[in-house]
Amino acid sequence: MPQFTYQAIDNQGAVISGSMDVMDERALVDKLQAMGYYPLKVARPEEKKKSPFFQFLPSGVSQNDIIAFTHQLSTMLNAGLPLDRSLAILSELEENKILKGIISELYKGIQAGKPLAQSMAAYPKVFSGIYTNLLKAGEASGTLEPALARLTRFLEESQHLRDEIKSALIYPALLTTVGGAAVAVMLVFVIPRFSEIFSDMGGVLPLPTRILMGISSFIVNYWWAIFGIMAAAAIGLIRYIKTDAGRLMWDSIKLKIPMFGMLHLKAVVSRFARTLGTLLQSGLPITEAMKITKDTMGNAYLNQSMSPVIDGIKRGRGIARPLKDMGRFPALSIHLITVGEETGKLDDMLIKLAEAYETDLRTSTKRFVSLLEPALILIMGAIVGFIVLSMLLAIFSINEIPF
């Protein structure tokens, strides 16, 4: 059986560490809990210092670091430790130097009498608006530990969904990169060699060969112009998208792209439902929860469409009817939200709606990738086939060239 290391809190609130031979992490957690310990960190020794190199936030703190910190803080509070002591312990245990410094500042803020959410709000790149508002509601109602537990589930589910989608898109991205690189090498290095040979022999080459050699010659002679135009276009597009009008236009286009638009809409609906449901479960008023959710949807076009919905809620129309009038959300989501309002369990129904759409999104993504992969193979095959055919036609035509 593999060996796992662990860090946990005993009944006296002391941090203990050690190792144990178990089948998996879940078995180790169960054993520690049976011994009366509160697990903080469980990992294989060789995996302990690994960190995802592609998931770092602009602050230098990964999303997994935030999830681990939130889970550990929730565990310590559940074990009965005071908030300040919990932060002091986490500051000592944290391996990420940036997050370690932030936790130290949070500890100083608590010692000075500042609320935890207020201290976290000073680091918006690390702790999002959803994060701080959930904790603010938990602190106001005296339910900080349950708020942290809900926040941990929220972050874990969101991260898990993102990881699954990224994993599904790795192969198509790799296929496109490798295939594109192979075609570029042939056009830049291989075709010009054949072009010199054919030009020395003279004669008229087949049309496909002349087209191929023209493309290759253009790329070789004007690669700097091609890269310059592409770089300028990319920079200009990125800058335009960063503007309010550009972001609005781009997000509107994303919803209209065949297949991808439906996937994007499902992702937005699931994010909307999970965020709003989690905020409502934490006790935030629906108008305030909607304002926070509106800014985290990930689509400026739908974000803008939410303003009339919030106005409708303020006028007592509820949320389902204004969402239906907006005409952007799928009928199933409207129906489930309506049921949630009628039964008085809107928060629970929103979480169920998020789970349903996340499952649907996973299935749809796999279906989309299963169609995308053969399409990419066919496209790459057609390009390579054209190159090979053009070369073969030129070789066959050599017999017709007078020597």
Write a short abstract of this structure.
The protein has 403 residues and is mostly helical. It has helices at residues 25-34, 63-78, 83-93, 97-111, 116-120, 129-141, 144-201, 207-221, 223-242, 244-256, 260-281, 286-294, 300-314, 320-326, 331-343, 346-396; strands spanning 3-9, 15-21, 38-43.
Model description:
With 403 residues, the chain is mainly α. The chain has 16 helices and 3 strands. The chain has a 3-stranded antiparallel β-sheet with strand order 2-1-3. α2 runs antiparallel to α7 (144-201), α11 packs antiparallel against α16 and α13 packs across α14. The model is unreliable at 46-56 (pLDDT under 50).
Outline the secondary-structure elements.
Layout: E1 3-9, E2 15-21, H1 25-34, E3 38-43, H2 63-78, H3 83-93, H4 97-111, H5 116-120, H6 129-141, H7 144-201, H8 207-221, H9 223-242, H10 244-256, H11 260-281, H12 286-294, H13 300-314, H14 320-326, H15 331-343, H16 346-396
Antiparallel strand pairs: 1-2, 1-3
Helix pairs in contact: 2-3, 2-7, 3-4, 6-7, 7-8, 7-11, 7-16, 8-16, 9-10, 10-11, 11-12, 11-16, 12-13, 13-14, 14-15, 15-16
Total count of helical runs of at least 4 residues:
16
Series of H and E elements? EEHEHHHHHHHHHHHHHHH
Largest sheet: 3 strands, antiparallel
Mean pLDDT equals 83
Q: What's the number of structural domains?
A: 2
Stretches with pLDDT under 50, minimum 5 residues: 46-56
Q: Report the portion of residues in β strands.
A: under 5%
Principal-axes geometry comes out as globular
Backbone CA Rg: 28 Å
The number of E-state strands comes to 3
Helix content: over 70%
The N- and C-terminal alpha carbons lie at a distance of: 75 Å
Structural class: mainly alpha
Q: Order of strands across the widest beta sheet?
A: 2-1-3
